[in-house]
Amino acid sequence: MPNIKSAMKRVKVSAAKKAHNKMVKSEMKTAIKKVKLAVAAGDRELASNLYREAASCIDKAAKVGVIHKNTAANKKSGLARLVNQIAS
Q1: Most buried residue, 8, 13, 21, 40, by CB count within 10 Å?
Q2: pLDDT per position in the chain (88 positions), as tens?
């Protein structure tokens, strides 16, 4: 544990930020898994509804800096490709 007051505060702040980032990333991953399960089940309507929610979670994660904006775009395009393949 640090002895300097500012270093002690940095430990607390970084721990709080880490917990928040972990929560946001976990929500994002859960949303992505739900879409993939709906795609595997072949339910296009459910998958498209879940895709909208997942895209929102991904955008929020990118907005607060948990993931890079290009990573968010790649994740969203990959999910959209999966959802669109159901009809084909």
Answers
A1: 21
A2: 889 999 999 999 999 999 999 999 999 999 999 999 999 999 999 999 999 999 999 999 999 999 999 999 999 999 999 999 986 6
